[in-house]
Amino acid sequence: MLKTRLIQLQSSLPGLASVLFAAVCFSLPGGVAAQDDAMPDYTRGGADDCLRCHTAEDYEHLMPIFDSPHGVRTDSRSPFGNLQCEACHGPGGDHAGRVRRGQERPPMPAFGPNALWSKDKQNQICSDCHREQDHRFWEGSQHQMAEVGCADCHQSHARVDPMRIATEQNESCMSCHVEQRAEFHRAFTHPIRFGELSCSDCHQPHGAATEAMLSDFNLNQNCYGCHADKRGPFLWEHAPVAEDCSNCHRPHGSNHPGLLTRRAPLLCQQCHSRAGHPSVGLTPDDIGPNLQSAFLLSGSCTSCHSQVHGSNHPSGATLNR
Amino acid sequence: MNATAQQNSSKIIASLLLPFLMVLGGGSIVAQEEAEDPVEQETAQETAAPDTSQWVCESCPFNYGLVGSIYAGTGYVSDELAEFGSFRGLDDDGFFADLGLDLQWRAENGNYFRARGERLGLDSRDLFIEGGRQGTYKLWLGYDEIAFYRDFQTRTIFQGAGTADQRLPADWIRGGSSPDLPRLDDNLSRIRLGHDRESLTLGFSVQKHQPWRYGVEVERTTRDGTRQRGASFIFHAAEIAAPIDEETIQVNASLGYVQRKWEVQLGYDLSLFDNRNRAVRFENPFLGINGADVGELALPPDNRFHQVSLSGSWRARGWLTLIGQVAFGRAEQDERFLAPTLNPNIFNPGLPRADLDGEVDTRIINLRAVATLTRKLRGTIQFDYDERDNQTPRDSFVQVVADTFVIDPRINNPFSYERIGFNASLDYRLSSMIRLDASFRYRETERTFQEVEDTDTTIWRARARTRPTDKLGVILEVSREDRNNDLDPTVLDQLENPQLRRFHFAEKQRDFIRVSADYQLPAGFVAGAYYELADEEFNDTRIGLSDARDERYGVNLSGQLGSRAVVHAFFDRESLEADILGADNVTGTPWQARQDDIFRTFGVGLQFTNLPGKWLDARLDFTQSRADGELSIVKRGASMPDFPDLETDRYTLEASVDRQLKQNWNLRLGWLMEKFSDSDFFRDVVDPGNVPLLLSLAQRSPNETVHVVSARLRYQFR
Q1: pLDDT, tens digit, for every residue of A244-255?
Q2: Is residue A150 helix, strand or coil?
Q3: What ipTM was reported for this prediction?
Q4: Burial class of residue A140, CB neighbours in 10 A (0-12, 13-18, 19+)
């Protein structure tokens, strides 16, 4: 009875919390006011005004933008198809205008040293144009909550954004995710450090519904994208496999083959304790010169039970066919 | 799912969806009011857009035509080693070709073409080509090849190794154990373990008909090679090089409608997996019981997966965003069954059906509401639903164990699960220096055909982010997870230990703490450090994983050395401990095993740019990654000697320097060295014939140093 009531209470708690949250949302006045985002005037001549100071000779690193998708005049969505430099950097009238002697030149509103606008506002500038579908879950995402800006990873002035190149993208991710950098150097890992896979092949850095910001709808579907042979369904399924690949695997790297969390037999003996050989605790005596045990060495359990992901063989109930 | 569980699930879904619908409905009403949207306010206050018709951009150095570079070169590999060559595509010692390109052609009208290729002369390479008219449409073609090598030194006695039919040599003499195989040594021949994965992708997308967007991408991936599999006959097994000959075709199509404040997308995903081999047939190298001389391992069957999804987001008010996605999928598999046995001495029991007619429906719903409640307070609630509804029919299949003898029939269990999750979080900026956030997560999972039908998990998490000074930032995070279940031990197999608790749904508590800090040092350097500890206790577990602990710490440093050099360094140490409890034959000797994996990784790198003279860039990177795996067991109340450590020790040193030869021509010289010092008692003590009940392929740990020197000429088009 108590358990039933507790279950009922538990099941109603999320609903109650949601109602309260919704009530709060609507009882509050019209949301947060914009941060202190100054709105200067635009320049008179556009990019020509900017390039008077930011010359190709002195600012060579900025010029590749004219080779990039951002520098296409015939595309009205491209910055140089409308407000040119000020499409991204904001109105530059104050920055490019006259400055009194001794007065510090006002910074550009966005994407520059001492930029005036908040990171959220700067991100909004990018997303106003880049309204691709994979930005849907940005709001409330871990990167947004960590105040990561678009410009922290992307380089708009580059001919090719480094985020589109696997090795460069991975370096950028691992500059913050240092632990993952270490994991990709382990003996058994996905080929991230070789540039054969990029972080965005599994993760969606712009936000996703899943906990680890996975690209697909859940972890197993993410894995099946490359490992479709594991999808099944199989006649004889291995329940923890169908539920969650990370029950046995560590996708960033491991010191065990197959990126496993541990070796057989211990890996298997976490869940299998049948009378007979599955339950026997194996010792160093089983690798002695007088007894080399097949239950321990080489593939261990998988020497016989090799169909650990499931079997479609009619006689494969014990995953050995 | 049973009826009661379905009712509970329905109530939960309803109780969570109702407020979402309230927010959605209320938001739509509010959105029609006078704009309280800060974005709207900003637009009203924004500087009026200027007349850009006079912005001729005559100083803008637009580049049209061809830019980019191509390179060609060669390199030399000192030694052949599978672990070194894997993923690099360097499977042989000796010379190799090194080719690549990075080209772009762009016209003034927006037409463009782009091609990028790396390592085109190797077995791990990629090429991506894209073209179109910017803002209108684009087409792309991608080719990617990944070479994976497991071992080059493995040996087998099977004729047709790596194929679907593996037979014993003509002169083979069977024995009762591997030392009793007189023809073993004479018939061993090398077989490489590994495979090639090749992907070809073709896609297009159209942006011309805004706000509509649509596109399709088709990818065909093939895998060819071999992998190690165990082929067994009642306590005897032979490791074979089973074939991999698979093809997967994936199609992703999307149709989207995108507006400034809302967007919606309809998507369709298709996956078709085709295995060119249904099974691998193998002969028994040992004396078979009951005439079990040949067997057959089923290989992964062909499968199909379709999924339709609908997703969208809506900025209902300037401070409120609603996001959601639903996906409905179906996985199917109906490959014709193999015969229950190939042993002619056993009466073939027949099959209840010709194929599985397997069908799994998937349903996924994710809903999220994000609200910036005040200037300092942000809240998020999220609802998740994930269901795997296995509709595969159940039947009774007579079991022929290892082609040797018949036992009682088994009924297949089509496992299903249903996960419901709820997450609520608040993020509060206490001051310019302190930011706090807290979250509560609840997840309930229901399963079929397992001793645990229902688990519920609650996770409380709190985090504080502070910047006590403008140079120092500190983050502290703690969380607590509790998982409960409704275990019914009577559902366990009668031969299982009734005290078994399977870790993935056993009751547990998990405590987590993480502290990290970053500090801006003088001269533009930034240092960081972190420590985290996760402790899991499975209090109800007497057999199985009872404790697990993950402790980690590290430091990192990066900065500029003068105007021409950048340096970075990092160190990471992680320790993974686990205790597994067992008992021999259920009521026999109890034992406790401990696994400790300790990882230490260190790296340092220097990057030089704009070197004096004609030297351009240089780079030096060194990484050491070491892991020690310690296994120990206590049995009969006494500690046994420890197992030998599992060691992996890798040093990687990479250096390169670029020099300009003449205008548009650069030379890159490179050196890569990687040293392997691994020790793995699971493999290293095993020869093909020294484990009595196992005929092994005899994999070995790498212990070698490989050097690669390379030279590459690059031509820059502009």
Answers
A1: 999 999 999 999
A2: helix
A3: 0.91
A4: buried
Nearest CA in chain B to A43: B50
Q: Nearest 5°: phi and psi at A23?
A: -65, -40
B599 interfaces chain A, CB cutoff of 8 Å: yes
Q: What is the per-residue burial (b if ≥16 Cβ within 10 Å, else e) of B350-371?
A: ebbeeebebbbebebbbbbbbb
Read off the pLDDT of residues A38-73 as tens digits, 9 standing for 90 and up: 578 899 888 999 999 998 888 888 999 999 999 988
Percent of chain A with pLDDT over 70: 87
Contact B193/B154 with Cβ under 8 angstroms?
A: yes
Q: How far is B262 from chain A (nearest CA, A)?
A: 9
CB contact under 8 A, A145 and B437: yes
Cβ within 8 Å, pair A131-B258: yes
B239 touching chain A per CB within 8 A: yes
Contact B648, B627 (CB under 8 A): yes
User: Distance between CA B352 and CA B410 in Å, rounded?
Assistant: 12
B372 with A31: Cβ contact below 8 A: yes
Q: What is the DSSP string of B133-151?
A: ETTTEEEEEEEEEEEEEEE
**Cβ B682–A263 below 8 Å, yes or no?**
yes
Instruction: Specify the DSSP element, H or E, that contains A260.
Output: none
| Min Cα–Cα distance to chain B from A114, Å | 14
Flag if A232 and B358 touch (Cβ within 8 Å): yes
The answer to whether the beta carbons of residues B94 and B57 sit under 8 Å apart is no
Q: Examine the pLDDT at B585 and tell me if it is beyond 80.
A: yes
Q: Which residue has the tokens 């560590």?
A: A250
Quote the minimal CA–CA distance from A297 to chain B in Å.
5
Contact A281 B144 (CB under 8 A): no
Of B641, B583, B37, residue with least CA distance to B316: B37
Model confidence, pTM: 0.90
Alpha-carbon gap, residue B388 to B365, rounded angstroms: 12
> Is B230's CB within 8 Å of A140's CB?
no
Closest CA to A220 of A209, A231, A229, A233: A231
Percentage of chain B surpassing pLDDT 70?
Answer: 93
Backbone angles phi, psi at B276, to 5 degrees: -70, -15
Q: Which amino acid is at B60?
A: C
Whether residues A78 and B135 touch (CB distance < 8 A) is answered with yes
The span from the CA of A54 to the CA of A121, in Å, is 24
Min Cα separation A115/chain B (Å): 17
Give the β-pairing of B694-695 and B615-635.
unpaired
Task: Identify the pLDDT of residue A205.
Answer: 94
Which chain B positions have a beta carbon within 8 Å of A319's beta carbon?
A: none
Whether chain A has a CB inside 8 Å of the CB on B667: the answer is no
- CA separation for the pair B570, B131 (Å, rounded): 40
pLDDT surpasses 90 at B310: yes
CB B578 within 8 A of CB A203: no
Closest alpha carbon to A202 in A222, A220, A182? A222
Per-residue pLDDT tens digits for B608-661? 998 888 899 999 999 999 999 999 999 987 878 889 999 999 999 999 999 999
Q: Do A273 and B544 touch (CB under 8 A)?
A: yes
Interface of B with A in 522-561 (CB under 8 A): 528, 530, 543-545, 552, 554, 556, 558
Cβ-based neighbour number of residue B481 at 10 Å: 18
Residues B402, B406, B407, B408, CA torsion sign: positive
Cβ–Cβ under 8 Å, residues A220 and B343: no
A155-158 long-range Cβ contacts below 8 angstroms, 24+ apart: A156/A65, A156/A68, A156/A70, A156/A88, A156/A111, A157/A61, A157/A62, A157/A63, A157/A64, A157/A65, A157/A68, A157/A70, A158/A64, A158/A65, A158/A68
Distance CA A299, CA A295 (A): 8
